[in-house]
């Protein structure tokens, strides 16, 4: 069991970060407003989690203008995809191992 726990990534321990990564892996990319509404987070809470994931190299930030309005989109990086999949695999192995013992 310790072997599986060792592979759990602390960067994805919160509900918010699990949600962000899950949404972005399914949607390919999403803007701040969509993530805020989908995950029911405040601006500040979402921004801090996005920044942490960006700082870890898991998200790419795409800034653009739509008309005259600024729009910030987020996309999972290759590194982020690999890290999140490894995290989810570790959780699955931990659950399945404990279930069969």
Automatic annotation (TrEMBL):
Pfam family, one: HTH_34
Signal peptide (from-to): none
Residue ranges of every copy of the Winged helix DNA-binding domain listed in the record: 17-95
InterPro entries according to UniProt: WH-like_DNA-bd_sf (IPR036388), WH_DNA-bd_dom (IPR027395), WH_DNA-bd_sf (IPR036390)
Coiled-coil spans in chain: none
PANTHER family, alphabetized: BSL7504 PROTEIN (PTHR37318:SF1)
Identification of the protein by name: Winged helix-turn-helix domain-containing protein
């Amino acid at each position: 069991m310790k072997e599986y726990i060792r592979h759990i990534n602390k960067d994805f321990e919160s509900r918010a970060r699990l949600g962000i990564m899950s949404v972005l892996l399914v949607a390919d990319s999403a803007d701040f407003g969509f993530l805020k509404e989908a995950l029911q987070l405040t601006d500040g809470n979402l921004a801090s989690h996005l920044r942490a994931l960006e700082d870890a190299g898991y998200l790419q930030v795409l800034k653009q203008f739509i008309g005259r309005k600024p729009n910030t989109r987020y996309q999972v990086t290759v590194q982020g995809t690999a890290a999140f999949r490894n995290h989810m695999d570790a959780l699955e192995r931990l659950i399945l191992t404990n279930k069969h013992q």
